Amino acid sequence: MGIIRWGIIGCGDVTERKSGPAYNKTPGFKLQAVMRRDEARAADYAKRHNVPKYYTDADALISDPEVDAVYIATPPDTHKYYALKVALQGKPCCIEKPMAPDYASCVEIVEAFKTKKLPLFVAYYRRSLPRFLQVKQWLDDNEIGDLRHIHWHLTKQPSPVDISGTYNWRTDAQIAKAGYFDDLASHGLDLFIYFFGDITAANGISLNQQGLYTAHDAVAGSWLHQSGITGTGTWNFGAAKREDKVVIYGSKGQIEFAVFDELPLVLIKGDERNERVIEHPENIQLYHVQNMREHLLGNSTHPSTGITATRTAWVMDKITGAVKL
Question: What is the pLDDT of residue 322?
């Protein structure tokens, strides 16, 4: 295929270190153009990251013949708008997570790319990280026996931005009804689907306890994987301290890890306790981006596609009560 030239729509904070540099570090990929409505910031990003072109108009980037594929890194409420334009241009696409604010929008995006027979990826990059592939390997090797249950507890204190009332799109109910749950919990739930298979039933409670912003800040949920494994989760963003702990229970032991914090992975069997420390790469989306290259070459199938992300969106909406079916 030669060099695949990428354009980024929305070169904000997430692209500075997490994702943007990974495109130039991946053999066969090149970051060709970026777009941001603020021209000075777009030009600054392009200069610092050695990107040949910058735009203030997304349509110009999408239609640029020197851009072969597009990465959408804007807030979720514009993902569908831009994704449908990319599909019409006939270009592969990667969308930041969550794929869209609701399940119905995800279905619409997937259908657009399916109709055009175009690859569609979503940046649930934990499916590609060595840290979580080690957990999957323990599970695949039956290290803790028959799998029974998974529980995730995530809490954090309100940030100074939350307390000040300064606008933050992540806590704007018009963009993310469940606030940080939409932004953060999607990562873990998507990972659990990767570990244990599709979720066939889910429900939960979602509400606003603090009154600091319009989005919900407290969520509790339960779900069932098609494999018969049960799951529960609690997410609260107004607690006294930060906690991030996942426990997978099996018939012969358990596995403990954090979704966000780089704590040791722990494998417990009887009196035996095995800890593994696996660091993330400098650019956390590096392996995700490299896997897109392998997918486009036909060497493998990427673990995070529009189809898998849509399944995650359905679970999120079921837990928050946004969908009933």
Answer: 78
Q: Calculate the average pLDDT of the chain.
A: 97
Whose tokens are 């493998």? That residue is: 300
For the four alpha carbons of 17, 21, 27 and 32, in that order, the dihedral sign comes to positive
Residues in Cβ contact with 271 at an 8 Å cutoff, skipping those fewer than 6 apart: none
CB atoms within 10 A of CB 282: 11
Strands (E), 146-303: 147-155, 199-207, 218-225, 230-236, 243-250, 254-257, 265-269, 272-276
Alpha helices in the chain (DSSP H): 13-16, 20-25, 39-48, 58-63, 79-89, 103-116, 130-140, 160-164, 180, 186-196, 286-297, 306-320
Q: What is the Cα–Cα distance from 30 to 43, expressed in whole angstroms?
A: 17
- How many Cα atoms are found within 13 Å in the side-chain-facing hemisphere of 73? 23
Tell me how far apart the alpha carbons of residues 29 and 69 are, in angstroms, rounded to a whole number. 10
> Is residue 232 within 8 Å of 151, Cβ to Cβ?
yes
* Mean pLDDT score, 46-64: 98
- Alpha-carbon span 264 to 64, nearest angstrom: 45
Question: Residue 325 has what pLDDT?
Answer: 59
Calpha distance 37→56 (Å, rounded) = 4
Please give the model's pTM, rounded to 2 decimal places.
0.96
State yes or no: pLDDT of 209 exceeds 80. Answer: yes
pLDDT tens figures, 136-145: 999 999 999 9
Q: pLDDT grade, residue 324 (50/70/90)? A: low
CA-CA distance, 132 to 135, in Å (whole number)? 5
Give the separation between CA 39 and CA 17, rounded to whole angstroms: 20
